[in-house]
Amino acid sequence: MANFTDLPAELKVSVTAQMYPEDCLRFALTSKDHWALCRPLVLKHKALWSKYQTTDGHTVWELVDAIEENYMVANYVQQARIDAERATCWGNIPNGEQLRPRWPATQDVVRWAAAVQRNAILGAPFLSLDHPEKEIQRALATGADGWIVALLLLLLPRLQILWYTQDGEHWWLLNALKYVVWAYQLPNPPPSLPFQHLFRVHIDHYDGARSASWEWVYLFACIPSVQLVYGYISSNDLDGVNQFRTQASVSNVTVLRLASSTIYAEIVDLILSKTTQLKSFTYENGGATVSAAGYNPRKMIASLSRYCGDLLEELILFDEDFTNRVSPAP
């Protein structure tokens, strides 16, 4: 039986071109012949990795277009920063000294809508993700980044670190996350599910006097690969708690750090009930937000003892102590 070394050089190049960038490099380093064979491809990977390793310097629209043109671009993006500094509307993107049209071109809207519909997650008949293409086109035509952010993040198979600031039409991504978490619970999850390499997530809100929904923490924590979650989180109500509690989700998070947060003890209990590996828990009550939820550290400690007592190594609780601020990120 022939092995890889027996293949013609042209076929070897074709095979290595389908490898992930890091796999191609590892293969190239196995021998001088393989290095000579793969060197042009390795140099190409290096250039694209330097350009696309992070989303810095790119708008979400530009990245989606680049991936649509060459799907391999998605493999280079390891860090995504969807923060408060981004242009949340297409018409607000700087365009040098030129004035950018307020609305995206019709052909761009049609192309983006088709990409949304083709996506296995956003095109799924799940919760509020099931929308007619014309409705998606209308949303995209406004220039808002809601659908585009959701599409981009779902297209990044090698994403490792995410900074996400809740702003604008964030519910498309939130609903997509609900689908992803549900799919990971299946006996045989689809092999193409997103976020398989995501291990660190930072959640924030664009308004410094407000916080993001607690659902972000719960959902990202239930992605199997995620180990660290940081964020400014609040809870406006208890909607969804009972629904999530009946799910078979499991969290592998080892570090959970919540700053300037106001979360009901019942929600903290829900999040902790899914953890299996939690070693460090930090919670700062109030701070930048107006405390609307009763702070109940005794219930928190009881939940920690119930679910994490054998593994927890570090516990830090703050309550309106401005001399001891704790950042949402290390």
Note the main attributes of this structure.
alpha/beta; globular; disordered C terminus; 330 residues; 12 helices; 8-stranded parallel sheet; 38% helix; F-box domain-containing protein
Q: Rg to the nearest angstrom?
A: 22 Å
Q: Any idea what the shape is? A: globular
**Which spans have pLDDT < 50 for at least 5 consecutive residues?**
321-330
Assess the beta-strand content as a share of residues.
5-15%
Question: From N to C, what is the helix and strand string?
Answer: HHHHEHHHEHEEHEHEHEHE
Largest beta sheet, briefly?
8 strands, parallel
End-to-end CA span? 53 Å
Estimate the helix proportion, in percent. 25-40%
Q: Indicate the structural class.
A: alpha/beta
Write a compact overview of the structure shown.
By secondary structure, this protein is an alpha/beta fold. The protein contains twelve helices and eight strands. Helix 10 (about 240-245) links the parallel strand 5 (about 230-235) and strand 6 (about 255-260).
